[in-house]
Specification:
The structure is a homotetramer.
Chain A (H helix, E strand, L loop, with lengths): L1 E4 L5 H13 L3 E6 L4 E6 L8 H4 L4 E5 L19 E3 L2 E3 L3 E7 L6 H14 L3 E3 L17 H14 L3 E4 L6 H7 L2 E4 L7 H9 L4 E4 L6 H13 L5 E5 L17 H8 L4 E3 L1 H5 L2 H14 L3 E5 L17 H17 L3 E2 L9
Parallel strand pairs in A: 7-8, 7-14, 7-15, 8-9, 9-10, 10-11, 11-12, 12-13, 13-14
Antiparallel strand pairs in A: 1-3, 1-4, 2-3, 5-6
C-alpha cells in the first residue's frame, strides 16, 4: 500500500496517518517529495483496504500495489490448475470443446444433436435446462425435465454434461446431474450462489460478467476457491461496449491476461460473444490461436426452429468443419484436441 | 415487426417467410424496394421474437418496431405510478429522500445516524444488513442482527426502512423488516430473485445494473410487474464506461428517458455513482434538476471508521446543507420535498 | 513516481533501476515489502515518463503519483480562470449561455434565430459555417459565406460569435470572424490544430472527445496553454458508452471533477449530448445544478427544415422557457445569468 | 427507409408525411398496425436522411433499412479490393506483415531494426516521423529528418515504407516518401485530412478511432473513396472500453464483420491494441486465425531506450519466432505469408 498525502496536508494529518499505520502493527516509510509526501507501508500479510486511509483528512489517495485476490493468483499457486471432467483433462495441453444446443428442447432434439457433436469430435455436451432470459415472456427452459433429458443424453453418448445453475433453489437438482455447473454472466456477482457452489465438490465454469473487470472476475473466482472448491475454470463470452456490428465485444486479449495472472483454465464462448453464426468460426479459430484452454460452442441442426438463440447456432456440418480447423491451428502451435486420459463412460 | 430480405434472396425463401407469417395467423405486407424487399407484419398482439424470422434463409434482419416490455411501458399505463411508503408518497410531486449509512454496524451507530438524517429532513432510512461485496474477505454485513437493529431504528425514529435483499434464502427475513426491499445493481438480472419479489406485496426499489440498457432494466421491472407486484420504483446508480475521474458514470439522462417511456418512479443514488464525497452534492442537485422523483444518499458521522464505503459518505452537516439546496432547486422548478400524506408511525 | 519490482526480480535488476534513477539526478527510496520491493522517486520537477522504468527487466509497474498535466492543473494556478467574451465574463459567477442554430443556412435564417435567442436572454450566438459530418454526402456547411453571415448577425444583434474551426487551412478565416473558436469533439486530439490555436490570442472552446478521459482532455488543453493561449474553456458534450436511450451519454459528473482538478471554465452542451429535443431542457437544468459555468444549446425555429441536427433543436419558445428555469435554478444556488461587465457592441 | 408513426398521431400528421414522401418523388407504402401505422418508402437510389422525417410531428422514428455507406460496401463492389505496395499484394490471399519501430530515432536505429525485421520475414517497414502524442511535452518525432531516414532505410533494405501523416501541412512531404500513408486513430474523423488524402494516388491505411463504430469507420473510408482514392485498407488497433488488464480492447470480431460488409482489406495492430509486449504475440496469432489480411507490429532491439512505446515493442528474436507461428497458422488455414508478385526494388 502506498499513501499519497495531498499537497496541502498538515503535520497533524501526517502524524495521524502514521499513528494509524503503526496501530495496525505495520511499518510506515515516509518518502518526502517536491510537492508532497508519500508513505509506503510494509509488514502486511494480505491486501489492505485502501479505505482505511483514503478517508483520513490530508490523504489524497491510497494506492494498492498488490492484487486484491490471493487464491486465484499466480503468487499463491505457480503451476496451472487442471482437473478431469469425465475422461478429459480441463486445463491441460489438449484443447477441450464443449458443444450442444442452447436449450434442451426435447429428448429427440438433444440426443440427435449430442450424437452429431460427438461425431464431430466434441468432448463435452452443453444444454440449458434452466435458462436466464431478459424477458419474462421468453422460453425459460424445461427445468427438471430438461435435467433428466441431459442425464439420458449422457447415458446414450457417454459425453459429460455442462449445464447452467440459475439459483440456489435448483442448485441441488442441477448438481445431481451436471458434470460441470455453469455460472452465467448475469450471475457472476451473485455472491450467495457463488458461496454455495464453493461448498460443492464438482467442477464449475464461471462466465465473465458483461461489464466485469479482470480483477472482479478473479475475485468472484476467489469466492469459490476460498470456500474450498478448486475445480474451477473461467469462460470469456464477450463484454458490453458500444459495438454496432455484434451483440457483444469479444475480449480475446483477456485470455493471455488470465494466463499471466491466474492459474485457472480459461475457455471462450464465441457463440454468445458474437450472436451471429457467420462470426462463430472466425472467433473460435482466433480463441485457439490466442491460447484458450477450451471452447464452448452452440450447435443446432434446425436453428430456424430453435427455442433460443437460433441465429448463433452452427449446423453440425459447419461445426464439424470448424473442428478440423481448430485441430489444425492447435497442431500448428504444438497442441492438439484433448484425448481421453482414461477410458471414459462412453 | 419488419423483415428485411437480403439482396440475394430467392423467390422460394420469400414465400417461406410469407408462409411462416401466415401460419402464425399474422398478416404480411410486402414492400418491394430498389435493392431488395421488406415485409411488414401486422396483427400481432404482443411483441414478436425477431428470431422467429432472422434465422430463416434469405432474411437479412428482423427489426422490432415496438418495445419489448408491456406492463412497464406508457402504452400499458398512461398515468404515473405512485404509492405510499410509510407516510410518504413515492412517485408523486414531492421529492423523497432516502438517507443513512452504507452498512448497519451497531445499534449506536445506526440510531445516531438515523436521528441525524431525520433531523436534516430525510424521509426514509437506508442501511445494509446483507452486503454484496466484490471480495469474500470484506465485511459482509451483520445479517439478521442488522435487520433487528433496523427494526429498532424504525421504532425509535419512525422512519420507514430501505434495505437490500441479496438472495432467495434471506428474502423472508428481509421482507419481515423492510418497508422497501432494495435489489442491487449486481442482482438486476437475478431473474429467480425477481420472480420471488414479484410475488411479495411490498415496495421494491430496483437498481440499474452496471451495464444494463434501459430496455433490459425495464424488462427486469417487467419480471416483477408480471408476477403482480406493482409497487416498484427504479434507481439509477451509475454505469460502467471508461472514466478515469469517478468510480462509475452517472447517466442522469436516463431520468427523462424513464419518465417518457415508463410510468414507474425513478430515483438516483449519487453516492455509489460517484464514489467520492465531494461529487455527491453536485450530482444530487443535478438529479433533482433533471426531474428525479427521489434520491438515495449515504451519510455517516464517522466516515473514517465506516466498515463500508466511507469515502462516499456525507457528514450529517453536509447532508443537512445539501437538503436545503435540494429544497431550493425543487422549489425553483415548482416542486418541493415530500410532505407526509398522513400521520405516520413516527 | 513509484516503481514496483516484480516478485521475482534479481539483485542486478534492482541495482540497474537504482542506477538509472541516480543517472537522472533523482533520488531513489527503497521500500522493502513482504512479496517484493517498491522504490519511491523524489527530486523531479515535472512528471516523469513511466516508460523510462517499466521497460526495464524486473520492473512490474511504474506508477505516476502526480497528474500528467501542469499548466491546466490547480497546482499550477489556484484561482479560477476567467476572461471576457464581448461584454460577458466566461468563468465568473454568472451563467453564460451560447445559443443558435447548428449550421448557418442563410442570412434570413441566422438573423431570425439570432434575434430570437437574444430576446430569450442568450449571451453568445453559435452557428456552424464549417461542419464536420460523418458522411461525405451530408451538408458540409456554407464555409466562408457562412462566416460572412455570422459577422453580419453580430453586427445586427451585437452578440459575440462562437463557431467551429475544422482544420488548419480555414483557421485564419475563422479566426478573423469568431469571438470564440470552437474545437469539436472529433478534433480534440488533432494536435497540429491545437498547436496553431495555442498561438492565437483569441478565446477557444475545447469540446471533449467521445472517448476522452479527463486526463487526456486536460492534456489537450495543455497543448494550447503551453503555446501561450490561456483564454480557454472546456465543454462536455456526451461520451460514447452502450446507451440505447440517447445518442451519447452525458457525463455531468465531469463538471465537479474539472472544477476540482483544473482552473479552466467548464460548459455543457446538452443538445449534442442527448440528440433529442425532449431531453435538452432536463439536462440543461441538471448541468446548471451541477455547477457548470455555461451552456451551449441549439435553437431552430423551423427544425423540420433544418439542414443539420433538427431533432435536437429547441424552438425559440421552448428555449425562452428553459432560460427562465435556468435563471431560477442558478438563483436557488446563489448564482444568476451573466450580466454585461461593460457596455458591449450591441 | 421505414417510418413509424407514434401511437397518438393525427390524420393530418400522417398525410403530411405522405405528402413529403411524394414530394421527394418516392413511393410510400402504408402498413396499418395494431397500435399504430408504419410507412415503407421505396424508389430512392441512395440512402435517405432519417432526419427528413423524424423531425415531423407525429413521427416516432425513421429507421434506415440500408447501410449509410455506398462505395465502401459489398453492394457497390462484390469482389475484394487488392493492390500492390512495392512487390506485395495487399488484400490478396497472402498475409502481409508491416514491422518496425514506433518512432524513427536515428539512422543507425532505423537501419538496424529494418534489417532485423526484413530478415525475420516482414514485408513492409513502419516507422513514425511525425508522432501524435497525448502530451505536448513528449517526443514529437524527428519530422522531416525522420522522413529522410525512412527513404534511406528503403534504399538500404528495399522495404516499402508505411508512415503516419498527422496534418495537412506535412501531407506533401509525407506523400513524397511514404509507400503507404497511415491515418492514426485520433485522425479517423479529421475529415479535412481525409478529403486531401482522397485526392492522392497513393495507398492509405486508415486506423479505427478509439470509439468508432463500424459504420463510422466505413463512412471515413467513404470520404477517401468518394474523392477517388481506392487504394485503401483498414486497421483495427483496439477500442476504448472499461478494461483493467490492457491499454485498449482489441475488437477482433470486427475482422469478419469488415469482410462481410466491405471489400476493403483489413489489418490488425496488436501492439497498440494491447500496449504490453507479452500480449502482442497471442493477439497477432489470433488476428491471423480470425482472417486478417495483414498485421502491423512494433519491433525494437533496445526497447528500454525507445523514445516511444518501448513496453509494447517485440525484440527482433521474439518477432522472428512470432513470424514462424504466423506462417504455421496461416498454413493450417490454407493461406501463407505474402510472396513478392514481381521482383521488387530490394
Amino acid at each position: 500500500m502506498l499513501i499519497l498525502m495531498s499537497s496541502e496536508h498538515t503535520k497533524k494529518q501526517l502524524s495521524d496517518v502514521l499513528a494509524r499505520i503503526r496501530k495496525l502493527r505495520l511499518k510506515p516509510h515516509v518518502i518526502p517529495g517536491r510537492q508532497s509526501v508519500a508513505i509506503g507501508i510494509t509488514g502486511n500479510r494480505g491486501a489492505l483496504d485502501p479505505h482505511l486511509f483514503d478517508v483520513m483528512p490530508g490523504v489524497m489517495e491510497a494506492v494498492r500495489v498488490t492484487r486484491p485476490y490471493k487464491l486465484a493468483g499466480r503468487d499463491f499457486k505457480h503451476g496451472d490448475t487442471s482437473f478431469n471432467v469425465g475422461p478429459y483433462r480441463v486445463g491441460g495441453p489438449g484443447l477441450v470443446v464443449i458443444a450442444g444446443p442452447c436449450a434442451v428442447e426435447s429428448e429427440e432434439q438433444l440426443i440427435r444433436i449430442a450424437r452429431a457433436v460427438k461425431k464431430a469430435g466434441s468432448h463435452l455436451l452443453r444444454g440449458g435446462a434452466f435458462k436466464p432470459r431478459t424477458s419474462p415472456y421468453a422460453f425459460q427452459g424445461l427445468g427438471k425435465k430438461g435435467l433428466k433429458l441431459l442425464a439420458a443424453a449422457r447415458k446414450e453418448t457417454g459425453m459429460p454434461i455442462v449445464t447452467e445453475v440459475l439459483d440456489q433453489r435448483s442448485l441441488d437438482a442441477v448438481a445431481d446431474v451436471a458434470d460441470v455447473l455453469q455460472v452465467g454472466a448475469r450471475n457472476m456477482q451473485n455472491f450467495a450462489l457463488l458461496k454455495d457452489l464453493g461448498k460443492l465438490r464438482k467442477p464449475v465454469m464461471l462466465k465473465r460478467g458483461l461489464s466485469a473487470t479482470l480483477d472482479e472476475w478473479l475475485m468472484s473466482a476467489e469466492y469459490l476457491l476460498s470456500e474450498g472448491n478448486a475445480q474451477l475454470f473461467l469462460c470469456e463470452r464477450g463484454i458490453r461496449a458500444f459495438s454496432d456490428h455484434a451483440r457483444n465485444t469479444l475480449d480475446l486479449n483477456v485470455v493471455p491476461a488470465v494466463k499471466e495472472l491466474s492459474h485457472l483454465p480459461i475457455f471462450v464462448d464465441p457463440s454468445h460473444a458474437t450472436g451471429v453464426r457467420s462470426r462463430v468460426a472466425p472467433m473460435a479459430r482466433a480463441a485457439v490461436a490466442a491460447g484458450a484452454h477450451g471452447l464452448m460452442i452452440e450447435v443446432h441442426d434446425r436453428p430456424d426452429q430453435a427455442l433460443c438463440d437460433g441465429p448463433q447456432a452452427l449446423s453440425p456440418e459447419d461445426f464439424s468443419s470448424l473442428m478440423r480447423d481448430l485441430s489444425a491451428i492447435a497442431g500448428a502451435l504444438g497442441r492438439g484436441l484433448a484425448e481421453p486420459v482414461f477410458r471414459g463412460r462412453g
